[in-house]
Amino acid sequence: MAERLMKIYKEIKKVLLRVPLFFYYIKGKNFLNDPYYIEGRRQDKIEMSKRPLRTDIINFILSQFSRETLYLEIGVRNPKENFNKIKAAIKYSVDPGIEFKENPVDFKLTSDNFFKELYQNKILSPDIKFDLIFIDGLHLAHQVDRDIANSMNFIKDDGFIVLHDCNPPTEWHARYEYDYKYTPSFSNWNGTTWKAFMKWRANSSVFSCCIDTDFGVGILSKKKNIGQYLNHNMEFYEYPELNKNRIEYLNLLSFSEFKTLF
Ligand SMILES: C[S@@+](CC[C@H](N)C(=O)[O-])C[C@H]1O[C@@H](n2cnc3c(N)ncnc32)[C@H](O)[C@@H]1O
Q1: Tens digits of per-residue pLDDT, 11-52?
Q2: Ligand 1: which atom is nearest the Cα of residue 78?
Q3: Residue in 216, 211, 218, 162 with CA at minimum distance from that of residue 188
Q4: Alpha-carbon distance 163 to 148, whole Å?
Q5: Which CATH architecture does the domain made up of 51-259 adopt?
Q6: Domain limits of the chain?
Q7: d(Cα 96, Cα 231) in Å, to the nearest integer?
Q8: Would residue 77 be called left, alpha or beta, if left means φ above 0 and alpha means ψ between -120 and 50 degrees?
Q9: What spacing in Å lies between the alpha carbon of 174 and ligand 1's midpoint?
């Protein structure tokens, strides 16, 4: 009897799925009740509620210098969100204007072109050295890795590189495709920045840590011991490995712990 009822139910469902309204309802309901979706939304909300934000961390680091500071931001979008709130004597901004049409920045360039022009002495000065460079442009590992390598040549010996989006809370935040928004993370996208950060965490000549807030604020320094390098022999950087070992892999610290290092 139960078997027969189930068969009838399946037949009805098959017919209903041909009606667009029912199709959307049934598929939409499955999507919203999926455990991956529910857990992904939960993790997204937790991350969104964490404080402080990247701006406070950058301002804290800048406030540690007893001199006038020089700041560069790569990837700005709307400057009201971060750039305008940064407290530095001189500030420069770089963005090709992909996400925010007005794009009121100093250099309307991709980071690659910005550094190319800097090396070629076409903009600023090839001798310029920043106290802090904030990298928040294209969140794909190869690009972030290049941005870090270039930035290393333009920070002072005691300067810092800060990176947004180093601690993606789920694999959906760490997806490759920015434009696809129908995942549990919706438009929140950390991309594969974490892989570039991990690569530099494994560099024995650099100190590093990641503050556990605002999707992971990674920090690199040539001089200040903010955390020893990660001695690992991972061949590939895979998300499930990060998920299991994020405290060790990223040297994940709370902001309070970080502040005690100064
Ligand atoms: C996440 S937003 C930056 C957010 C901002 N830093 C903040 O804290 O509010 C990323 C920005 O990077 C820019 N971008 C994309 N590709 C880039 C590239 N190759 N070089 C520099 N910026 C890039 C986009 O136009 C976008 O405005």
Answers
A1: 998 999 999 999 999 999 999 999 999 999 999 999 999 999
A2: 9
A3: 216
A4: 9
A5: 3-Layer(aba) Sandwich (3.40)
A6: 51-259
A7: 36
A8: left
A9: 16
